[in-house]
Design a protein that fits this description.
Helices cover about 0% and strands about 50% of the residues. The chain has about 110 residues and is mainly β. The strands form four sheets. A five-stranded antiparallel beta sheet has the order 4-5-10-11-12, with no helix packed on it. A three-stranded antiparallel beta sheet has the order 1-2-3, with no helix packed on it. A two-stranded antiparallel ribbon has the order 6-7. Strand 4 and strand 5 form a beta hairpin.
Length: about 110
């Protein structure tokens, strides 16, 4: 269920769009949340690790990005404070070290009623 232009509720988490990874990330209910769905703050930092996936139109194709045949690791590490994503330097995407406004959810993640 969509709770704002930038957040969705899912089982045990809030979901937001990550412009660094080009995919949705979950913010666990166990994290501290300021309750502001327009300019959220979650603590502590969020650390997502895994294999880099191939996306088309914002959806995973089921394929993994490869370099010389080997899968590619990824890290997305950030603080979300007052609606600002503060990407840590250990992130492996192009936004490492940057601060950007939490973007709106892409259309396919929005409820039809909104």
């Amino acid at each position: 269920m969509q709770v704002s232009a930038r957040l969705r509720r899912a089982a045990g988490a809030y979901i937001h769009w990550c412009p660094g990874c080009g995919e949705a990330h979950g913010l666990p209910d166990a994290w501290t949340f300021n309750g502001n769905v327009e300019s959220p703050t979650f603590a502590p930092s969020l650390l997502h690790r895994g294999l880099k996936r191939v996306f088309a139109g914002g959806k995973w194709t089921g394929e993994w990005e490869r370099d010389a045949g080997n899968t590619v690791d990824f890290v997305c590490h950030y603080f979300l404070t007052d609606g600002q994503l503060h990407f840590c330097g250990d992130s492996t995407h192009a936004m490492a070290g940057m601060t950007v406004t939490l973007p709106p959810l892409p259309g396919w993640l929005m409820d039809d009623a909104r």
